[in-house]
Amino acid sequence: MNSRIIVALDVTNKPLNWFIDFIDATKNIVAGYKFGLPFLIRYGLEGFMEISKLIDNKHYWIIDFKLADIAPIMINTVNQLVEMGYNTYIAHAFIGLEGGLFELKDFLSKQNSKLVLVASMSHKGSLDIIDKCLLNILEIIKKLKPWGLVAPATRPDRIIEIKKFLFENNIQAKIFSPGIGVQGAAPGTAIRVGADYEIIGRMITLSSNPIKIIEEINKIHREIIGVDHK
Amino acid sequence: MNSRIIVALDVTNKPLNWFIDFIDATKNIVAGYKFGLPFLIRYGLEGFMEISKLIDNKHYWIIDFKLADIAPIMINTVNQLVEMGYNTYIAHAFIGLEGGLFELKDFLSKQNSKLVLVASMSHKGSLDIIDKCLLNILEIIKKLKPWGLVAPATRPDRIIEIKKFLFENNIQAKIFSPGIGVQGAAPGTAIRVGADYEIIGRMITLSSNPIKIIEEINKIHREIIGVDHK
Fold this sequence. Notes:
The structure is a homodimer.
Chain A: E1 5-8, H1 16-26, E2 32-36, H2 37-52, E3 60-67, H3 71-84, E4 88-92, H4 97-110, E5 114-118, H5 134-144, E6 148-150, H6 156-168, E7 174-177, H7 189-192, E8 197-200, H8 202-205, H9 210-225
Parallel strand pairs in A: 1-2, 1-8, 2-3, 3-4, 4-5, 5-6, 6-7, 7-8
């Protein structure tokens, strides 16, 4: 998929059909979709089941519950979604390894699913503790080697710092960046400093013309990365 | 309620009626019930709706999604459960204040609901980052003044440290301690060092005689605290 956009589907005032139509209309112009706890609360496992009929190998189908519990609870939480084919899961790096992320990563790997760890968040409160612990969080990432990371477009310096650490330690990990649009960062902000994907929600989903917005953002991304940016 | 037990209802291999019968049979001998993401995944909002018919003012009805996201997502997640009457919500102190816990606490306060913050976790991975940041976490707690805290029975020293901080800073906050039973700590471990409640799951819910186990643990707690411990 020749796009660097992940659409965060956190709208909850639409019928389930809206999501099916939305995905159908946008799947050729975005890289993937992200579903959080608001989706789970509103549409339940049945909602995920309906959406799962659209799952393919060309997109990321990201479950973003910001998992941050002990291993048995996290595994019990994602278990049925893994079986439905959702292939990517976001958890917090800060909860640590033994009894937490080690077992989660092991479980996901065995199911051909990917783990993405939150390295830093997009809101200001992230500075209170998470960003102060960035070195500790990066040590967790070095040990666990997750498939991907989350780092905020609202603080591009943080992405640069993380990219540098990954490069110096020869760690391969995709970087996903939230914070574009309503949260304040302009499209392209994260891609420009080396993120692989920008996670964009309300700017697209609340728009009266989501396809136009997506195409405009794809154009911005292409201008940053160059035409052959696959 | 003259008990220090919160039952963690993380079993997912039972019909919903099991929970209703379980709560009915145990409500006079426990202080409250805790529901996590496994319950939400398995029984959905309809499950919470059914259980909400049993909600009273005498128990804690705790939603433990280990919330750790930006404020709009956390509020959108708990919104409908608050309306149903679930009165207590667990979030991670780690995610910080502005754009995170400030707005969540404000939302919950306006709905007469309580916020409980995770100060430390029961698994070993908690030592990797969370426990290294305990002083930062306690500063968040000092600023936010949540109604309650979570601290692990598996590391009673941590509870002692937290109690000392609360006392020195004249902060009132109930302490809830997971980690009893399957996770390794003996019943009474946390109460003995000053926790207010022990959160107990599988030791009770997987038992062939939950009521007997609960009564045995209540007896242990009474022996520690004294008879008039309300």
